[in-house]
Structures are given as C-alpha cells and as structure tokens.
What does this fold into?
Amino acid sequence: MFEQLGNFIAFQLLGLVSSSQLGAAVQFFIMDVSKIFIMLLIIIYIMGLLRALLTPEKVRAYVRGKPKWLARTLAILLGAVTPFCSCSSVPLFIGFVEAGIPLGVTFSFLIASPMINEVAVVILAGVLGWKLTALYVGAGLFVAYVGGIIMEQFKPEKWVEEYVWKIQMGEMAQIKEDTSLLGRHRHAWGEVKEIVGRIWKWVFIGIAVGAAFHGFVPESWVVANLGGDNWLATPLAVLMGVPLYSSATGVIPIAEAMIGKGVAIGTTLALMMSIAALSLPEMLILRKVIKWPALAIYASVLAVSFTLVGWAFNFIVA
Amino acid sequence: MKIVKVLGSGCANCENTAKLISEAAKAKGVEVKIEKVEDMAQIMAYGVMSTPGVVIDETVVHAGGIPDKAKIDSWL
It folds into this structure.
C-alpha cells in the first residue's frame, strides 16, 4: 500500500522517471514517511491505551533490592520497554544510585534503553521483517548485559560525582490514574503527541538519509566496499555512529536502505546500535553525574562490543 | 492560592508545562504562584525521576511529559 503511494506520488504526480536516481530516492522517501509515521501513531496510541509504557520510577521500584543477576535482567528488559528520553538520564542515574542499585546494573539499563524500545521493534519488524528484528533485539540485550558486567570490573564508583551520593530521594505519592475509557484515550493521545513530538525530526532525517542512500549510492560500489568481506567496514560504521545521534526509530529507514543495497547485515546492525546508543550528546549529558574516565570506558566498551557483534553477524550470515 | 512547582532542569518541555499551567489558571481565574525547581537534589526529593514533574501544594500530581489541558484543569 505504501509502496503504491510512493510510486503514485513520485512517478505519476511528480512525473519522475522510476529508473532515475532522484525518482528512486523520492519514491523511497514518500513510501517510508507514510509507512513509518502511520505505524508510529498507531503503535504509540495502542500502547498508551493499555498504559503499557513504563515510567523510570516504576523500573526503579522493580529493580531495587533484587540479587544482581535478576536486577540486571530486569533492568535490561524493563529498559527495553521504557520509552526513554536521554534528557532524563541524569535523574534516572541518580535515582538508581540512591536506590542502592549497583552501577553496573544502571549501565546495563542505560545501554538497553535507547537501543531497544517496543515502538522501534514493531516498526523494525514492519520494515525489515521479524528475522532481522530478532537479531537486532538479541544483539542489543546481549551487549547491554555484558557491557554492564564489564563496566563493573573497572569499579566505576570512584568516578561518580560527589554530590550524587548525597542526594536523598523522597517517596513519590502514587499519582491517581484516570482509568476510564476517556482517561485512557487522553493519556494515549498525550503519549502520541509527546513521543512523536520528540522524535519526528530524527525520523525525518533518517528517512531522508535512507532515501538518498537508496537513490544515489550505486549498488556495485556498496557490494564492493561495504559487503561482509570488508572487515574494516564494521568498526568504521561504529565510529560513524558516535557523532551522529538519532532515536532508534530514526535509524530504521537508514538500515532499510543499506540492507536493500547489499551492505552486510552485521555492519548495518553495528551502525544502528552505535547511532542509537553511543552518541556524543548523550555522553555530555551523563558527564553531569560521572567523570570523564568512566565515560571514556563506557564509550569504548560499547564501541568494541558493537564491532564484535557486527563481525559475528557478518561471519554467521556469510 | 495554590502553589505550583514545575520540576525540571530547564528543558523545553518544562518551560511549556509552566506556561500551560499559568494560561489555564488565568482562564479559570484561579490564583496560582508558579515556581520552577531546577535543582536536581530538590527534584529528586519529590521522588520524581522523569521530568517535567508538577507539584501542587506539595503533592506530586504529574511526572514525565507535558500534561494535557484536561489534566491541568482538574488540578486547579
């Protein structure tokens, strides 16, 4: 349906030639804008109706006081279903510390949360199919679990800013929820406005980049340079992702275009994870609570893990 | 008079929330005093981790995201 819409607007209304580079790019852009935004609206609205979106306060309450392996597993799984805005990573970090949740577990949460969320997962499945989605989610959970454990080995407590330890957190009174149908609708609509309002520009940019890649980058060049045989392409993809930031949803159209042109799957996944979870802006935000050495280790652990995961997938799939 | 505190470290959403509340109060003719709380220690003291949060007369009524108009009206 969306493909037909893309064809109709690009080739009939605008009169572009379907075999031209611009025609291919415009068709891709229209197809993905309609497809991804409609999916976004529907998924967030349904999640909102069910009140399925977790808040960091609830996650903290579930994770605190559990044995470490269980705490970590919960942190990652809950991180994956919490739509998390990097602007709240500071209060979240402090809240976890204050609850006595081990730092390694907090890092696991911080890795999992931006990389995986249920909205991105459903859209990823709709665009790239369940198999790749399962690979991406599995890789993300794995990196989050292991990444947190590795962070722990460095004893990062010594790099936490002094004031963080001193903050006393109050108990929040339970906020009354309006559970009538109208209340649920209002809540769901609020979630749609809030989340779409926050991520729409990333999604647009992602689609534009994907469309440009789809239309203008020759397939023969991609296969020769970014195929599974090129070992260097994977770490380069990870490095490219560091200065770039986008929400997990915004990365999907880029991945779609890359895979369509024959970029190796592991290389694509590495870029996706790097853009979503390893980014300069997020690091600068976290600097308010931890010192540079811890940030440097955090970034390195992630970069190395993404590269290894990318290589592993390229190896397995090839 | 109601004392309204908007919790948040100066993000755009927090500014918007404060603005919406003051507009709604004006429309209803309710007297309010809006304070912005930007200090992290104070925000956390209310048990709020997702900002913006809203506190009315020392009770947390909202956390995370911009509250909608119906919700704001119900507080006032």
Summary: Chain A touches chain B at residues 55-57, 60, 87-88, 90-92, 94-95, 98, 163, 166-173, 175, 186, 189-191, 193-194 (CB under 8 Å).
